[in-house]
Design the sequence.
């Protein structure tokens, strides 16, 4: 009782323990928030091209140990390691095709050296006669996109620099011939990128003759849309296969769905309610 | 005279040779294709055959939910086992390039007598363990190895091997923090990698030993020690410096004029031996 009456408050061991814990938690939460903020910001650099065989960006960020062995293995110094100030996830490999594109080495030296599997050898290999063979043409680093406004081939000037630079000429970039109505006697030779073949190596971007490249490689997530399940090519048996996996129990739920059709169709109140 | 100087700085010189030598090997692998040690401290390949990986980085990547390749796992295991059984926390003082930065700051502090005049900024030595736990939690939340993406150690190391960028700013800030704010602030208070090795080297066998009868209580060892709380046995009892926080830098041994300190193998059999 004497303790309660004295003016000095009692600092018990428990009080001390709890307040120290609270202090640690407080500081950790503050630090953690700032830290997380930075990481999320760094992660959200979408315009980044990864080495061949890279996993999807979230998995790649999870698995890349930032050792730089891919960059060291690259004979063309295509791959760089993100430095502070590059505004890319720190220490991860990337390339800028306009500076140095991927030259598509057939032995892909950058991929097998990856110690973590962030660069997946299987994704750039084919199995032929029971043997796994590296095939750089299977890589999906990105996809080339043409800006029709600045591509001079769309003006009618003859240029097929990208088409000729493409290591998969006439497969990844094909030339489309169209009549030039303006002159009436010439043809447009228009580059068209075949998205399912293009590897994103960037040799076209490197070769483009305009001041800023009119054909450039973008990551798939940035450059490509997605049809979803609601539209299929009915004339294409292969495309119809997509329907096999479609779940049919997705229905739209509105306020009206709570009632059976005969109920809401017979009730004016519900029928005309908003 | 020369031999005397060498004796007074023998471990310091050896450590600089080790730190710079390792940096030079990594650098020349990238720049000249001299493939003894390729990669970086995060993960590398020794003689193009033996994988080595940073066990703390691998731990964060596990926390982030990564399924890793065998090379990274074997490499992490090799490094972890070496330090946990033999080296102790030797990574911090014999390998880590940041050690040269913080040692310079620490030396300047002593020369400029900053310890005597500076206002004390309080920072607990246990903060690093909280940073360690935090970096694992944040790895799990963000799906990225949280410390690896901000680590000034890899910024400096990668900077030397691949090009610095703005990484110098991070290194400079650690230097200034250690010089003007908190003595041994980064390596002794904050760095979660140091915390990791402190915890993992609790039982490692290479230890600093104290021979109490020789000690004259001059306290030079505590002056130079970057983790002086571990030298609590000085002048009191003979035995091993058993804390995992000892970086095995050997500075205490070389500054001791009385042969009261030496490297040795931890005595597991006779505790007072």
Sequence:
């Amino acid at each position: 009782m004497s303790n309660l009456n004295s003016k000095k408050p009692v600092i018990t061991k428990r009080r001390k323990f709890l307040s120290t814990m609270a202090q640690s938690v407080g500081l950790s939460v503050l630090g953690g928030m700032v830290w997380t903020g930075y990481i999320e910001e760094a992660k959200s650099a979408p315009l980044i091209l990864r080495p061949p065989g890279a996993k999807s960006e979230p998995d790649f960020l999870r698995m890349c140990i930032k050792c730089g062995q891919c960059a060291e293995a690259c004979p063309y110094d295509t791959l760089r390691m993100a430095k502070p100030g590059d505004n890319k996830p720190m220490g991860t490999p990337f390339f800028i095709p306009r500076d140095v594109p991927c030259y598509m080495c057939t032995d892909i030296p950058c991929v097998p050296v990856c110690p973590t599997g962030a660069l997946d050898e299987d994704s750039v290999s084919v199995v032929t006669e029971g043997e796994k063979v590296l095939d750089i043409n299977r890589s999906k680093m990105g996809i080339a996109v043409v800006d029709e406004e600045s591509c001079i081939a769309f003006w009618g000037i003859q240029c097929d620099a990208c088409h000729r630079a493409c290591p998969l000429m006439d497969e990844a970039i094909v030339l489309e011939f169209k009549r030039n109505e303006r002159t009436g006697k010439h043809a447009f030779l228009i580059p068209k990128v075949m998205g399912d073949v293009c590897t994103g190596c960037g040799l076209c971007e490197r070769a483009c003759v305009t001041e800023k490249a009119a054909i450039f490689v973008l990551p798939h997530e940035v450059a490509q849309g997605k049809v979803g399940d609601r539209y299929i090519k009915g004339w294409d048996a292969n495309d119809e296969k997509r329907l096999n996996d479609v779940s049919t129990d997705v229905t739209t739920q509105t306020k009206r769905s709570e009632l059976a059709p005969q109920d809401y169709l017979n009730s004016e109140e519900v029928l005309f309610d908003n | 005279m020369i031999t005397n100087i060498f004796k007074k700085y023998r471990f310091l010189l050896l450590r600089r040779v080790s730190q710079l030598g390792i940096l030079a090997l990594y650098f020349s692998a990238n720049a000249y294709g001299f493939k003894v040690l390729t990669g970086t401290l995060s993960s590398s390949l020794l003689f193009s055959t033996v994988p080595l990986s940073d066990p703390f980085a691998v731990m964060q990547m596990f926390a982030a939910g990564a399924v890793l390749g065998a090379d990274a796992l074997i490499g992490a295991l090799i490094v972890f086992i070496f330090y946990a059984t033999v080296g102790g926390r030797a990574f911090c003082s014999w390998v880590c390039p940041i050690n040269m930065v913080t040692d310079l700051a620490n030396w300047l502090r002593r020369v400029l007598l900053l310890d005597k005049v500076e206002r004390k900024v309080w920072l607990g030595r246990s903060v690093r363990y909280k940073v360690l736990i935090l970096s694992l939690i944040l790895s799990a939340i963000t799906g990225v190895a949280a410390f690896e993406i901000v680590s000034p150690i890899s910024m400096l190391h990668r900077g030397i091997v691949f090009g610095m960028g703005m990484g110098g700013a991070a290194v400079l800030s650690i230097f200034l923090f250690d010089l003007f704010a908190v003595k041994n602030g980064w390596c002794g208070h904050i760095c979660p990698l140091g915390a990791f090795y402190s915890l993992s080297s609790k039982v490692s066998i290479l230890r600093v030993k104290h021979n109490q009868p020789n000690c004259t209580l001059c306290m030079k060892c505590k002056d130079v020690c970057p983790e002086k709380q571990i030298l609590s046995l000085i002048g009191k009892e003979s035995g091993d410096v058993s804390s995992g926080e000892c970086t095995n830098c050997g500075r205490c041994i070389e500054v001791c004029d009385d042969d009261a300190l030496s490297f040795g193998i931890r005595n597991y059999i006779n505790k007072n031996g």
In short: Chain B touches chain A through 52 residues (CB under 8 Å). Chain B is about 55% helix and 10% strand. The two ends of chain B are 35 Å apart (CA to CA).
